[in-house]
Amino acid sequence: MKVKVRKAGIPQESVAHNYLWANYRDTYMCEVARESDISPDDVMVAFWTDPPFWVRSLFRLRNSLVRVFGLKGDESLSRESLEQCIRTGEQQGFVSVSMKTADETIVLLRDKHLNAYLSVYMAAGGGSKQVSATTMVQYKNRLGRVYFSLIKPFHRLVVKSLLCRAVS
User: Which domains can be identified in the chain, with CATH numbers?
Assistant: First the structure.
């Protein structure tokens, strides 16, 4: 059965509420069986290490295009180093764990033009677990704003797809 992912508000208990200063925020949410033993770290690891082919292709294209503007790509980070970063909180390249609790993991992607935070938050409710992915972006300069406005339409598709894939 395909998981339904929908746009939502930031969950009330999520630490992502502390990031309300961000220039851009969005949240997508889905539900999984309450018995599922999936954790926020598991979802975050899947986000960064198991994207579908079309998302990997978009990231490769993005990395080659933005290099000219001095933006960082992720080509030097291995799947293993990304997973280690998420599970242990160790910084790997421009990726670090900003905050971690039993219910939430927030990863920071730091660049000279913007900071992007991704929160995965889980809460039990009724007969299921609600899994939320919240993106928060802080622009550091005009180029950060321009860059994010160009990728925003893709961002929405990518986050929804990655969330669905990560919990399935």
Answer: 6-167 (3.30.530)
Residue 110 DSSP symbol: E
Q: Model-level pTM?
A: 0.88
Q: Where are the alpha helices (DSSP H) in the chain?
A: 40-49, 53-66, 79-88, 142-167
Q: Which residue type sits at 17?
A: H
Read off the pLDDT of residues 81-103 as tens digits, 9 standing for 90 and up: 889 999 999 888 888 999 999 99
Between CA 107 and CA 168 the distance in angstroms is: 21
Which of these, 112, 115, 76, 114, lies nearest to 92 by C-alpha position? 76
Closest CA to 22 of 114, 159, 147, 112: 114
Please compute, for residue 114, the number of CA atoms within 13 A of its CA located in the half-sphere on the CB side: 22
